[in-house]
Amino acid sequence: MSKIQRAVGADQQKRLDYLLSRIEEVLGHRDRREPMRGYCTGLLLAGERKSVEPMAAKLEPGNVRQKHQSLHHFVADAPWKDQAVLDVCVDEVMIAMKHQVAAWIVDDTGNPKKGSHSVGVARQYCGVLGKEENCQVAVSLSLANEHASIPVAYRLYLPESWTKDRKRLKQAKVPKDIVFENKNQIALAQIESAKERGLPLAPVLADAGYGKSTEFRRRLTSLGFQYAVGVQTTACVWTKDIPPPAPTPKGHVGRPRKRVSSWDRGDSPPNVRQVALALPAKSYKNVTWREGTRGKMRSRFAAVRVRAAHHDDVLSDLPYEEWLVIEWPRDEKEPTKYWLSTLPANATLSELVSLYRMRWRIERDYQELKDELGLDHFEGRSWRGFHHHATMCIAAYAFLVTERLRFSPLSTSRRTQLLAPAELPEGFRPRGSAAA
Known about the structure:
By secondary structure, this protein is α+β, with helices and mostly antiparallel strands. The protein has 2 domains: 3-207 and 363-413, no CATH class; 227-242 and 267-342, no CATH class. The protein has 15 helices and 11 strands. Strands 1, 2, 3, 4, 5, 6, 7, 8, 9, 10 and 11 form an 11-stranded mixed sheet that branches. The two termini are 35 Å apart. The relative contact order is 0.16. Residues 1-7, 410-416 and 432-436 have low confidence and may be disordered.
């Protein structure tokens, strides 16, 4: 029995072997099976760095160079399909979750990067740093309930500065069929694909980066999804007190008005900030949505039925009615968050808040994938390597999620349990590390 097997225990090792054997079935060539097992195990080993060379050193201290070559070829060059591996992992997690899905969560995450050669790297907004910086950004879709979540799709966003540069695309080995798509388009494609796969349907959650798009919200509705998505303070809505203008009545002289773009000064809809400030104080209620690490999480919220207002709306076919939910913490001078939701008209304020606040699960996904499993540690530059590494990280995460779900829901608040680290060769230092 290896050091790794002794560290995880026989029963846990059997469960890990089962998941890896399922992944082996979709890898294609048999020669990929051993490096896949090594790569996934290396990600699960405790340690600060999860790039290829440190993992090779932990897996085979006496044969680092050969192991490094094997792992590098598997992740950077071998032509196995990422989505096929993700589908296997998601199937196993769905069984552990008993197919109980409360939300589909869309978001993106940035990996700060130096230089200009890593695929997709550009100066763009990086959520990790909270500002524009040189980074890679990937869009993902997670399925979640109160106790667990798992990414079901993960794709790199390529800025137009990349898709217009054929030489750069060739150097990064980007597939020829990849064209520029904004983040909304990538997310919608992921949602459509997951729906076609037959995954359990649930409302879609997203922040204002996605929710501000009228087309994004309309497309979700056309696909049959309810949603709860953030919007910016400038988003305009029609309310009960300020309804949309009526179509021009018959018999009126002149061309009849057909679109809301014909607003006159009296027809202009308020933005959501104006709606929030106009509500009476009694409209805001205290809501507790879950237990956090520092106690119960609560704030003040209000909800009002509205219709989103757009300049291209046709008066004879105005937008559906939906919820505008407003968060206004008691110690803030004005509201801090707004979101639109197509949950039913009889939904309670608590239900509206609890659903949208489930977005924390995808933030936890990203945190653990990076801090524990090295999602942002990949040092290669190619499209295939970027996605293969992310897929293996999600596979390792799937194992950890299923292990957690074997215990009570309370265990989900504990730190991820990784495998015990192996001993590194004496004097080992990864290439590129600072001189001793």
